[in-house]
Amino acid sequence: MVKKPASFGIDDLLKLAPIEERVYRLLCVEAWSMAIPWIGYSLSELLRKVEPLPGAKFVEFISLADKAQMPVVSDHILAWPYTEGLRLDEAMHPLTMLGLGLYGEVLPKQNGAPVRLVVPWKYGFKSAKSIVKIRLTDKQPATSWNLAVPQEYGLYSNVNPDVDHPRWSQANERRIGDQASGGGLFAPRRKTLPFNGYAEQVAGLYVGMDLKKFF
Ligand SMILES: Nc1nc2c(c(=O)[nH]1)N[C@H]1C(S)=C(S)[C@@H](COP(=O)(O)O)O[C@H]1N2
Ligand SMILES: [Mo]
Fold first, then answer.
1. What per-residue confidence (pLDDT) applies to 179?
2. Ligand 1 centre from 124 Cα, in Å?
3. According to the model, what pLDDT value does residue 25 have?
4. Which of 88, 93, 118, 129 is positioned for an S-S bond with 97, CB 3.0–4.6 A?
5. What is the value of pTM for the model shown?
6. 145 lines ligand 1 (CB under 6 A)
7. Ligand 1 centre from 54 Cα, in Å?
8. Portion of the chain with pLDDT greater than 70, in percent
9. Is the shortest distance between the CB of 129 and ligand 1 below 6 Å?
10. DSSP summary character for residue 6
């Protein structure tokens, strides 16, 4: 649902908007976190180029599923290709990044080459890696984790210390590489912040919503 559907090569994406380095926290749904210096720009820069139609409400992100490079896609643990989704207003939020690199380099394969999503206020699995297709739709897209385990992984998956995962608490997390607490994998747990500490910027997207229901 865009006025100007288009294909972009990696060189087009690299010069589509000024490249920025942004240091964001990323929290895995399994309560591990890390601060990452991403390279890229707001996803809204790309979405504006294709001109979303007025009826578009959601954005679907479809990842590469290449059996030759990615042995895991031969296993039936998830419905491949890995698919993620955001509401259009979440996708247009300036904090939502199209990630092209990290630590000053282009993305290594394991971190989602050539392009990935970075949504710092949501659990890590929302930040789809190795994206090859983006679709705008008026229907909520099915996502791989929601199809596999709907009671555990909702569409929103906003970081929320008050909504536990059915199998563990989301009240606190382990920060990898946290020098202040001695670093390492066995650093003491720290309190998880609502929206991963980005509430001031993004809480307005969810005014009036029951975040326990829309988890
Ligand atoms: N295509 C794809 N994207 C993905 C995943 C995946 O399995 N496939 N895993 C997600 C999860 S659970 C997390 S925590 C982050 C991890 O990003 P990293 O590998 O760069 O640390 O990627 C997310 N994006
Ligand atoms: Mo994760």
1. 76
2. 6
3. 97
4. 118
5. 0.96
6. no
7. 31
8. 98
9. yes
10. -
